[in-house]
Amino acid sequence: MGSSDSKLNFRKAVIQLTTKTQPVEATDDAFWDQFWADTATSVQDVFALVPAAEIRAVREESPSNLATLCYKAVEKLVQGAESGCHSEKEKQIVLNCSRLLTRVLPYIFEDPDWRGFFWSTVPGAGRGGQGEEDDENARPLAESLLLAIADLLFCPDFTVQSHRRSTVDSAEDVHSLDSCEYIWEAGVGFAHSPQPNYIHDMNRMELLKLLLTCFSEAMYLPPAPESGSTNPWVQFFCSTENRHALPLFTSLLNTVCAYDPVGYGIPYNHLLFSDYREPLVEEAAQVLIVTLDHDSASSASPTVDGTTTGTAMDDADPPGPENLFVNYLSRIHREEDFQFILKGIARLLSNPLLQTYLPNSTKKIQFHQELLVLFWKLCDFNKKFLFFVLKSSDVLDILVPILFFLNDARADQSRVGLMHIGVFILLLLSGERNFGVRLNKPYSVRVPMDIPVFTGTHADLLIVVFHKIITSGHQRLQPLFDCLLTIVVNVSPYLKSLSMVTANKLLHLLEAFSTTWFLFSAAQNHHLVFFLLEVFNNIIQYQFDGNSNLVYAIIRKRSVFHQLANLPTDPPTIHKALQRRRRTPEPLSRTGSQEGTSMEGSRPAAPAEPGTLKTSLVATPGIDKLTEKSQVSEDGTLRSLEPEPQQSSEDGSPAKGEPSQAWREQRRPSSSSASGQWSPTPEWVRDPMPGEQGLGFGQMVQGRELGWGSLAQGSSVRMAMSPN
């Protein structure tokens, strides 16, 4: 049968389904087989030949027919999993049913009356294989579907390479095979790399798309009042009911981390040959991050003190997460596995940054946001992996791509989620001393970004990019300002030498944030000033000798500190500053920051969509709205930290585990909102943070430990007066 005839027959079947007003019996195989037995339709054909309007029409006018269609399609998948899909016809039926369910399921999920449909029991589908003998213990349709997908993902000669010489396997062999021997890719817990097979990759991708569609039901549900609500599809798939949980988790992780989009580096090879692995890798990454969507606070992480198994994971049976995917991830502990994961993620994150002499000669992937979420999950659930990352020099191979993506996405409101996950990863990493120390490595690999040219370290790159985000991002990024500055505070005690460009950026931020109209605009805007002052205090206290550029910039801008120390406290002057702000709501500009020339080969960040607002510090929302609930401590948990006493190490920087973080969790809610109802009082100006040991503006600027006056006078200042 030709392709056009198949499409025509399939379309006729869809029309018949939408026009039938009477229920079609489930036993009418001649009618139902039209949808999958006699057709060879691609996923694009299914989406084109089954319009959304017709699916909704069947749902409203002939609900029993839609229910039977789903039931019969799941039944065919179960039969294919049980038989092992030996014939080409069986394989085609499985693919057709998978594509049809992928198309139909979202329209079932969107209707509240249908949401319990897949969790209703199906007569004859017993949990223990009893079948019709135990209908009271019947298995819900959703469970049957998920188990069939899991079986099909390890079906010999369909999604994995067969290990048998014979082409015919019995049904018993399908159910008894050890799927750990059929892991898709070498890596964590598996040393053998199977021969690439693009047909297997495409079949895996079809099934993973259906799996993602099943997991997507949560997108159509109203927000749950309690945060601990779980996705039943994910919960069941990642439970002990799924006998393929371990090999599937390992297959997905290894497939992502082993992927090399460049290969041997032959120019334009991605234009000459189709890459069937990239779509599979993207689907695998998406399935991984969805299955790892687990509240780590709800269950304790398993201990890592058991024996090593063939899967390179701890074989103890701790009271760990019920989600097996989270459990397996948290138990990875071999350094060679950590190295494999870190190298793989760093390679993929760095791929869009590759530069060649031949334009567009290398393949560029587009799923870096999924990779960042996966990296966050790895650090969150496996603290040994986090510590391995922090002690490895490869952490900079993660940092540079993140800064590139943050800078590139800063003007695009549609990518605000990318901005959040990137900033949160850096916030988590910045809590460790090793990360701050690593930032002193010279930055020599020039990634084209529209930032000023500088000669310096990775710390300079981080601060310059953060300055760019703050000064030229869109308004929805303003809640992240204190996160960005908190990162700088956390690493500041370890920064041995900042360039003149970076020093000017920091002083420009202080100058902008310390204007009276901005300080008096919202109850918590002064936190940003305190962050910057803490940065200066840390650098001068611990790394004074190597930071002559910063000291020179501070002296040049000493008037800013003098103005901060002498803010007006009388009501008329405060009122006048607020009135001036309302008359001239100026955005934070870069006119005084010595922007300079951007890097060669860079391009401006994508502009915000039409109708979006430009950054204006006038309308900054309360900075506790986001970070008060989302701040991450050093061990990855969400908790508040009190300022700790500091101790110096031999090199002058704070001792390990004790960086200066007085403002890391400065999130005391204001009694007034940050909207127009709040107005500063003279008492607030004198001491904006009562109860915090009197950290008024004057006291903070004068510096209880450093003596800003003597510094400004230049006593004991050793520096090169010429900028870099």
Brief summary of the model shown:
With 724 residues, this protein is mostly helical.
Q: Which characteristics define this entry?
A:
two-stranded antiparallel ribbon, elongated, 724 residues, disordered C terminus, mainly alpha
User: Mind summarizing the main beta sheet?
Assistant: 2 strands, antiparallel
Spans of at least 5 consecutive residues with low confidence: 166-172, 297-311, 315-320, 590-595, 608-648, 656-676, 702-724
Strand order of the largest sheet: 1-2
Number of alpha- plus pi-helical segments: 32
Structural class: mainly alpha
**Arithmetic mean of pLDDT:** 75
Radius of gyration, whole Å: 30 Å
Binned strand content: under 5%
N-to-C span: 73 Å
Number of strands: 2
Share of helix, binned:
40-55%
Account of the protein in words:
By secondary structure, this protein is mainly α. Among the domains are: 1-114; 139-162 and 180-220 and 231-296 and 321-391, no CATH class; 442-583, no CATH class. Helix content is 49%, strand content 1%. Helix 15 packs parallel to helix 18. The longest helix is centred in the N-terminal third of the chain and has 22 residues, at 88-109. It is elongated, with a radius of gyration of 30 Å.
Could you outline the blueprint of secondary structure elements for this entry?
Elements: H1 3-19, H2 29-32, H3 43-49, H4 52-61, H5 63-83, H6 88-109, E1 121-126, E2 138-140, H7 141-152, H8 171-176, H9 198-215, H10 232-237, H11 245-257, H12 269-272, H13 277-291, H14 324-331, H15 335-350, H16 368-381, H17 383-391, H18 395-409, H19 416-430, H20 433-438, H21 458-472, H22 481-491, H23 500-513, H24 516-519, H25 526-542, H26 548-556, H27 558-565, H28 571-583, H29 624-630, H30 682-686, H31 697-702, H32 708-713
Antiparallel strand pairs: 1-2
Helix pairs in contact: 1-4, 4-5, 5-6, 5-7, 6-9, 7-9, 9-13, 11-13, 11-15, 13-16, 15-18, 16-17, 16-19, 18-19, 18-21, 19-22, 21-22, 21-23, 22-25, 23-25, 23-26
